[in-house]
Each structure stands twice: as structure tokens, then as C-alpha cells.
Amino acid sequence: MGADAEFEELLAEGEAVPTAGWDFSWFEGRATEERPSWGYAGIAAERIADADSVLDIQTGGGEVFAGALAEAGARTGRMPSTVWATEGHTPNLALARERLELFRGEVVQVAEDAALPFAAERFDLALSRHPQSTDWAEVARVLHPGGTFLTQQVAAGSNRELYEFFLGPQPAAENTSRSLENLVAGARAAGLRVVDALHESTKVEFFDVAAVVYFLRKVLWTVPGFTVERYRDRLAAVHARIQATGSFVSHSERALIEARKP
User: Fold this and answer.
1) Which of 8, 29, 104, 124 is deepest in the core (most CB within 10 A)?
2) Which residues lie across from 254 on neighbouring strands?
3) CATH fold of the domain at 3-260
4) Torsions phi, psi of 14, nearest 5?
5) What are residue 256's DSSP bridge partners?
6) Phi, psi of 197 (to 5 degrees)
7) In the 8-state DSSP scheme, what is residue 26?
């Protein structure tokens, strides 16, 4: 296969993969991402094991939440009596509902910037992994006194090497609302007591341009407005780099915050 034909085939392959949900198994053998050392899913399972009412905010396809619920159930032999999740992306709803049905979970569609459709002090545990945004005041409102909020956030500058390759240099202060300092400040401003706040930078490596295309289609905010046609020249440069060096390397930024309502 000629170089041009291989490039076009990889572009087509990356464009064809469905993007619903947050199952990243398609990347196996094509991309890798180191995980933060704290292990969010395991911590979530520990907190669920002690909870009676649980809310997962912006659950995606419910993959991580369902896994944490299953792990908690295996530890304790019981499930929380109340299990809810919110999700704003319509294609994810059916996936989340199917996964959470086993745990008697309900999923409601809620836009990322909308108020949570729950009464005050409804939950003793709220979770959120990689939300597009966090309304700390709303989280505080729906927690019982003494309730816990555990969240893993995509922190400021995540995958900067990747998005600057497509968009050019971005301001150093870009997206500082997601810095660990500002995330902690948001939690405290809502009246929550921060009990843990961690940050790690982890390596992301893409081994073919199809994986880059799929990632940018799936994680829409990395390169806003991404399409293959719009960025064909930059994708050709990505392909050339991978052919020359074996991979395209970037770094994700992750923050973990655990906070409690007094």
C-alpha cells in the first residue's frame, strides 16, 4: 500500500468509529494513556460502599459509574437504595440507562450548565468523572450535611501538545478555571470543605493517525470544530511524525478533589 493510500485509509477508519459513550477499548494497540496513581474508580467504589443515596453527574455512557457500583457491591453484598445519574449528551443516554439498570439506577438528561433536577439534601454521595463543567453550588445543594463529593477533573492544559499542534500556540493562562487551585477555590466558595486535592500529569501516546482522528471526534473540546477535511494538512503532519518516530506524545492533566458538606 502506498503512503498516500495508507494515510487515507487511516483517516477513514478514524472517522468511521462510533463515538457514543466513554468506552475507549477501540484504542487498544493504537494509543495508550497512563492513569493517575490515585485510582479514581477504586476510591469511588469505597465511597459507594458506605453510601445509601448516590448521584453520578455527567456520567457519559455510565461505564465508570457502573464499574464502581459493581465493585462496591462485590465488597459489601449490597447496593445503595437510591442510584441516579445525569448526562447531557443524547447519544450516551441509552448506553447509560442500559448499564445502570442492573443497579436499579435512573438516568436523567441534564445539560452540563443546567441546575440539577433534585431536591435539596437528596444524596449522601455525589460523583463526577471528567465533567465538562462543575456547578459547585448545585453539588453542595443536593448533598446531605456530611455528604461527600468526589470528582476527577480534566485539569488546565490537558493535551496541550496535541491541541497546539492543530491550533497553534495558546495563551499560557488558557483554561485556568480548571487549575487545581481554582477548582479548590470553587468548592470552598460553595461552602464545601476540601479534604483532598491532587494533581498529576500523565503520558498519552498515539501510534497511528486514526487514533488521533477518533480521539478528536470523541473528546470534542480538545480541538473545537474538528473535522478531517478542515485539519487534513495537520493530520498529514501527525501521520508523518508517527511514521518517523513511532508515536505522537502528549500529556493529560488530571485533578482529584474530595470535598464534604459541613
Assistant:
1) 124
2) 154, 200
3) Rossmann fold (3.40.50)
4) -65, -30
5) 152, 198
6) -150, 115
7) G
Please name which of 152, 161, 233 lies closest in space to residue 196, comparing C-alpha atoms: 152
Tens-binned pLDDT, residue by residue, of the chain (262 aa): 556 899 999 999 999 999 877 778 899 999 999 999 999 999 999 999 999 999 999 999 999 999 999 999 999 999 999 999 999 999 999 999 999 999 999 999 999 989 999 999 999 999 999 999 999 999 999 999 999 999 999 999 999 999 999 999 988 766 788 999 999 999 999 999 999 999 999 999 999 999 999 999 999 889 999 999 999 999 999 999 999 999 999 999 999 999 999 9
Are 65 and 56 within 8 A, CB to CB?
Answer: yes
Q: Domain locations in the chain?
A: 3-260
Range 107-142 burial, b when 16+ CB lie within 10 A, else e? beebeeeeebebeeebbbbbbbbbbeebbbebbbbb
Residues with Cβ within 8 Å of residue 154, at least 6 apart in sequence:
130, 178, 252, 253, 254
> What count of residues does the chain have?
262
User: Is residue 130 helix, strand or coil?
Assistant: coil
Q: Which long-range contacts does 16-19 make (Cβ < 8 Å, 24+ apart)?
A: 17/214, 17/217, 19/91, 19/214, 19/217, 19/218
Residue whose C-alpha cell is 459541613: 262
Phi (first) and psi of residue 80, to 5 degrees: -55, 145
Helices (H), the chain: 3-16, 40-49, 63-76, 90-101, 136-142, 160-167, 180-189, 209-218, 232-245
